[in-house]
Specification:
heterodimer, A: 116 residues, seven-stranded mixed beta sheet, four-stranded antiparallel beta sheet, B: 112 residues, mainly beta, six-stranded mixed beta sheet, five-stranded antiparallel beta sheet
Chain lengths: 116, 112
Amino acid sequence: GAVVSQHPSWVICKSGTSVKIECRSLDFQATTMFWYRQFPKQSLMLMATSNEGSKATYEQGVEKDKFLINHASLTLSTLTVTSAHPEDSSFYICSARGGSFYNEQFFGPGTRLTVL
Amino acid sequence: TQLLEQSPQFLSIQEGENLTVYCNSSSVFSSLQWYRQEPGEGPVLLVTVVTGGEVKKLKRLTFQFGDARKDSSLHITAAQPGDTGLYLCAGPSRGGTYKYIFGTGTRLKVLA
């Protein structure tokens, strides 16, 4: 299977600061990457779809100015949580599809964000 | 709106027991995937089923795709503590966006 990495695996920040999370496809070119948010003991909630070289498509209710997504290359997408507040604390997971894995998506290990 | 409902929501069983998790929808899906997620980690793909009526086996796990491609099941034989986790089904959204719809999840705990 394909390998997707995320960095950092966890981050603690102060309220009002911005945090950047990276998602990388290590052994394939990801034409599409997805960003999810997961609350404790719940399923995944899709935040946005990111296609390489174009603007991300955000799901209803997700603030695009709050969660900035950049997919500048076929192996890297970034999610920046701007002016983070405690309610943004969550588990953020990315996934990627592309190349020979066009019909499946593979997930990164997730990033635990805690905003104090 | 495409929805995937999973049942049961929670399941706590003893080691060695068998169990079945269901994933149901009123919509037809071109394929369905099953994932297992452990706490603090991302979901790991277990299987993809594509053909209506298809049955796939992965050691003690048996996956079935409904004939009408609206539902799927996951059966675990002789469950072990290592099977503990959150099981998620998912299917591609209509419209060519490559988005996936995720099921509501089944949290399984296998007691030794």
